[in-house]
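Example complex used in Figure S2.
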Amino acid sequence: AQKITQTQPGMFVQEKEAVTLDCTYDTSDPSYGLFWYKQPSSGEMIFLIYQGSYDQQNATEGRYSLNFQKARKSANLVISASQLGDSAMYFCAMREGIQGAQKLVFGQGTRLTINP
Amino acid sequence: IAGITQAPTSQILAAGRRMTLRCTQDMRHNAMYWYRQDLGLGLRLIHYSNTAGTTGKGEVPDGYSVSRANTDDFPLTLASAVPSQTSVYFCASRPGQGARELFFGEGSRLTVL
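Predicted assembly (229 residues):
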């Protein structure tokens, strides 16, 4: 079963608009972490934001925020005031468990294109 | 600059040949991972290691093996390469329990003909 699902293969957004990238996850572990990464055309993986399963508030990092809805098992990334440089692939990922074996798995990714 | 070094950066390989992708980190991170990235499939976990001396299978382990003799090195071996193993391979590391960020190498592009 897919652990991380990103249902939007591609998105096109006008510059300066806000954009939400969807991510749903599947786990029975009460302790887990959720990540978002950006991969520009140059290929490197850039860490954006992290949300722990026990965190009471939604994570924010500058223009990035994570809309964490635990009951719905969703962890959507919100980018406010999008910029041309935000055009990239975006990956959601999940780490399960605190102790013992800790796998970290990724979704299929969403390609975001910001139009001027 | 501290980080993760992968080698080779790019390689073309004949099917049936043995190949080892090297990954070295100098951050003394406990956990290390190997992923392959394919168009439309995202990053898929091949193998991982939580600490030196231990390894585990990820989502797509078949055809690959790893070892973790020490903290710094985590090589990935293709015993007999097949064309379906053509991909971009990323090595990553994380300090350990509760750590937030995963640090990635630059990737190794492997083509199996």
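Chain B is about 0% helix and 50% strand. The two ends of chain B are 35 Å apart (CA to CA).
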